[in-house]
Amino acid sequence: MAAPAPHVARLATVEASFRSLAERFLGADPGFDASWRIVLGDVGHSWEVRVTADRARVRKGATSRDPDAVVGTDAATWIALRRGELSAIDAFGQRLLDVRGNLDLAIAFAGFFALEDGRDPLLRFHAIGLPGLDLSALTMGAGPDVVLLHGLGGAKSSFFAAAAALARHYRVHALDLPGFGASSKPAVAPYTARWFAETVRGAMDELGIERAHVAGNSMGGRVAIELGLRHPERVAGLALLCPAVAFLKRTYHPAVRLMRPELGLLPHRLVRAKVAEHLSSLFADPDMIDPAVADLVVDEFQRIYASAGGRIAFLSSARNIYLEAPYGRTGFYGRLSQLQAPALFVWGSHDRVIPAAFARHVTRWLPSAEQIVLDGCGHVPQVECAEQTSDLLVRFFADVDALGPPAVDAPRAA
Q: Does 3.40.50.1820 match the CATH number of domain 124-403?
């Protein structure tokens, strides 16, 4: 008997993998309900998968329900994903996945199902329950713990490439801070560095993390510093990517103080073109951004900002960053000098938001910190200079691990 044609055998393998999804379902958080359309262009078929807390349903072809995410790929990539030969983050980074809709959900799909040989998935998205809110988290890899914190207006997706690189050596947790991404967006919350830092500490408690390396970009960098100042025993090494340190010249300080974040309760939207323009301004070379990815990021920001909680979180966080006092009794730089964890500051030579010139203030107040300026890089080095930044993080955390845990003093007053 003649062997089946290659495309027939490939389709049979794909169909078998979809048929077995329901029995390999690992469950979802209570109340979860999402659907995906998986389109495999080279075999000319699509499937729709709907996941609720305790059930996964698979149907071939389109259904009447609008999916939350549409994922286009080829049969070989799909099979590699199901066999655990490739993570969804790596596939997305290599542009083997064409995503429309919710990026978080598109990447999270594989984490709901055991691999074909029964192994755990390469990554999991899950909710961390804290008093009054839930945090959305991505966890992947094994080893010492690393926590990744995104910047203002961003989400954990900005750390996907770094998470994949670090997961070869560490157990990585990329969080959506409250008010952003898929996490809760309380309308009544302070959205200060201290509040964010205490929230991250609570998330570490829930995840059973006693001590972790922490990397943060922009606002996430400021939160990481605060966590290191308030809970030095919980932080191994701090990698601070263009962190939102205190501004010295605050020209608009009186006007910003008068602006009330509560105005976010009033329904309004930001013009899409302006959001796209701001996104481009974060990069030294905007052409480095894949246009399809840029569209996803802009769409995600607009979706979140469309909610009152999302608007208040964004406006409150931005206001608090700008108004932080650089000097004085509780000023940022005096407190920075008390940071005990080994720290790496990474600046972008073309960062228009937090210029690399801030490095001289860090040198003055925290001379023990290592500082690196990435040439031709903007405000989001983990995206624009992904490979270089990931290598820096791996090297720095390995150096900190080699030194072993230092003696930690109790936090001191500013």
A: yes
